[in-house]
């Protein structure tokens, strides 16, 4: 990011070029997309096993038995991959006082009256909700998943425990898919957000408009020489 960024004016152009702000390192983006692909594959293979009407989805994974074998392994990939995201982002997702105000004004969020919202840091309350609910859901999914992974853990639990685990696993999966839909919808709905996870940067205007406190912090931290670009997380 150019260090000449005038945060008070919300400059979006510097020396004739649009100002961009680094938001994600390449490592964070690869980590994110591995997580995203795993969740999509898990949802498809899980739904294939969930209801006979959706059994045709097993065709994507080479048939019923293969789907049953592959599904838990993709779950293991999702677990470790999300754990990587968790380590990277948990701090930025801690609840702050302005998040409560942002949430109380959710009507203004939905009607795009951003001038009435408080300045927020790297993530807003909605993103923090997605982050923490996914963290909890993935723990529930892996724990219940292991209980019903008979190929390796058959002897460790009783049939009663397995019955409860199947029920909780399916319910957690439905909630996780819903949270994922909200996450993707929000990423598309807030114009200019997708490029954060594809190119790693956002425009200065986007940062000023949606995460002004974060932008102010970056500008305050950035070195005062012209070559300086603010490191992404
Ligand atoms: C195809 C599906 C997905 C798309 C298009 C997508 C898109 C995005 C975008 C654009 C961002 C950047 C938001 C910002 O910086 O303001 C982001 C952040 C993030 N995404 Fe995704 N994502 C997808 C799937 C997932 C899945 C499946 C998970 C987790 C299970 C996930 C977890 C996260 C996390 C943790 C962040 C950082 C935000 C935070 O920590 O609050 N994403 N995603």
Automatic annotation (TrEMBL):
It is found in: Cell membrane. GO terms for molecular function: electron transfer activity; formate dehydrogenase (NAD+) activity; formate dehydrogenase (quinone) activity; iron ion binding. Residues 23-200 form the Cytochrome b561 bacterial/Ni-hydrogenase domain. It comes from the Bacteria. InterPro entries: Cyt_b561_bac/Ni-Hgenase (IPR011577), Di-haem_cyt_TM (IPR016174), FDH_cytochrome_b556_subunit (IPR051817), Formate_DH_gsu (IPR006471), Ni-dep_Hydgase_cyt-B (IPR000516). Its cofactor is heme. One of its GO terms (biological process) is respiratory electron transport chain. Keywords: Cell membrane, Electron transport, Heme, Iron, Membrane, Metal-binding, Transmembrane, Transmembrane helix, Transport. The chain crosses the membrane at residues 33-50, 70-90, 129-149, 164-190. One of its GO terms (cellular component) is plasma membrane. It is a multi-pass membrane protein. Belongs to the HupC/HyaC/HydC family. This is Formate dehydrogenase subunit gamma.
